Fold this sequence. Notes:
The chain is α/β, with parallel strands linked by helices. It has four domains: 1-120 and 315-327, Methane Monooxygenase Hydroxylase, Chain G, domain 1; 140-305, 2-Layer Sandwich (polyphosphate kinase like); 344-511, Endonuclease Chain A (Endonuclease, Chain A), CATH 3.30.870; 517-707, Endonuclease, Chain A, CATH 3.30.870. The chain has 19 helices and 27 strands.
Amino acid sequence: MSNKINYSDARYFDNRELSWLKFELRVLGEAQVKELPILERVKFVSITSSNLDEFFMVRVASLKDMEHAGYTKPDIAGMTPTEQLIAINEKTRELVDLQYNIWGKHLNPVLKENNIIIYDKYEDLNEEQLKFIDSFFMSQVYPVLTPMAFDASRPFPLIRNKSLNIAALIEKKKDVAGAGKDNEDVEFATVQVPSVLPRIVALPSEDKNQDCFILLEQIIERNMDKLFLNYNVVAASPYRIMRNADFSIDEEGAEDLLLEIEKQIKSRQWGEVIRLEVESTINKRLLSILKKNLGVNEIDIYKIKGPIDLTFLMKLYGIEGRDDLRQPSFKPQENPRLRPGEKIFDEIKKGDILLHHPYETFDPVVDFIAQAAFDPQVLAIKQTLYRVSGNSPIIASLAHAAENGKQVTVLVELKARFDEENNIIWAKKLEKAGCHVIYGLVGLKTHCKIALVVRREDDGIRRYVHLGTGNYNDSTAKLYTDCGMFTCNETYGEDATAVFNMLSGYSEPASWNKLVVAPLWLRDTFITLINREISHAKEGKEAVIIAKMNSLCDKEIIEKLYEASSVGVKIYLIIRGICCLRTGIPGVSENIHVMSIVGTYLEHARIFYFYNNGAEDIYMGSADWMPRNLDRRVEIIFPVEDDQLKLKVKHILDVQLGDTLKAYEMTDEGSYVRIKAARGKKPVGAQDTFCKEAKKSSEPEIDFLKKRSFTPIFASEVIDD
């Protein structure tokens, strides 16, 4: 038919990278919320800086690799790599300008009003502070510094990725032998600002109520002449580079994957320079030397009006004694089914248990492995690890289990970006303890979150399983919103065993009982579930899809959602970050609503709801709707079938869809605007609501949920306690 809709039309898609930059704007938007305590606002500026660093090292670097290779194939939005880089550059500069505008004109003045002073001019310092700075430099800083010269006899030094440095032009003093005339002997030197020292240095203050600071690079700049005793410092200025940190590994050709990844980690320090940050007032000759020797294009130079690298603001956020300028911290609450000291296996036997982090504590997940390690009835423990904390109690328990003679199999994903080094350390420690450590499947990252405990009991062997949406990381579990489920249902146990057999050997099950596993089965399952809603809509039945995830950029899934929308399926998407789908396209996406929640906690859970003519199928798991999750990773989604747990999950979705405090809605133009509460209504935040509910949580709470109808209406009212 001539009027058939072409759901592949590039105009119907947003570019992935530009969509991510829109997410950065939403994060930065929190720094502009005047109702937030000032240090909370400062924290969000730091987060955007850290996010932007990773974006350049990986995403921008990847596009540059494509451009160098002459790759011109357009993305789903019709943009070539070169076109994307141009657009990214424009939007990033706007973002950085906004960052520094917010910091300089809005946040820094409010900090001063609250007696937190960051000095940027020596004229503002008193005599005592100046003496402190000079003394601090000589005693603490000078011994650590290594100035590096660049001249005919010495090559341009290696500048490390992400390090802050100070470049200088120096000339021999005229009274020194060999000094030239008319600046003939002006030379270049650079010194790295040592990362082993604190970036913000506390200064003495006459006012005991004041917290005074100065940045380390300013202390070094003031004392540069002490590094070059026979020279005059003509000019000096901080700078910072970002290198290509996106490496690829020939896994089939690698004799030892662990050694190959260790080698690649080191190579990050030599990657192509893809971004150079300098002070806006930098000396032109100094900039020219940096540009030439670092091989940086003009388009990749960012002239900063303020302190370079605002990630230091996270340290400022954590200063002691200023709790009045931060939000009160929330202590994760106990799950009513899993009280401390109880035997976790006995509780799981009573029925499936759902955990909602960080509102409910992550301790039961840690205890699950800890109790298994010392339980004489436990025969085996198997677990996947993607990102774990620096001092992981789970790793310690797995090592104890192996030392206690249990069969312990751990899949450590060595290719977890920027956690490779950490994971290599854990892998070696686990192997030393006697664990069987595997590194995943060739060509695939293992991203699924699953733990299996095999236990001998009076009635035979029983398998206990934990499935989650987030990593087995006790630190980030306090900061990320995630869900997890404990079960000893035999069908889940059979599937869990099949997963580990598939990961450790060559056993691939013909079918699965409950779990849906990528990369072979997950995409088809999602397409089937969406098609079912399409069929119901065509039959005139109610059809609803609700999906919560981190990112949506898979072309086939988006096209299928467009098809569903066009026949009347109501679609509600809660997407934290990237969303390449466009709303409000006539005849295509008019029934799709997209929202994003940016709050105290990073929204990380993946939940998928399909109305299914009233049967209501709910899945949770580790996968976003991205090509990498569906096609290039080992992922798991699992059904939530217990009626009590389904009510809880529906409640999570319902409350999030009703957020009028921290939620943004995608407009038909592709931008995002804050969702506001209806006139006369108090704004309600989902994260705040879950904190309140967790504090008064008990088993009878389910009765309340049973009375509550689940009506998936975008920005619906939620009950505020």
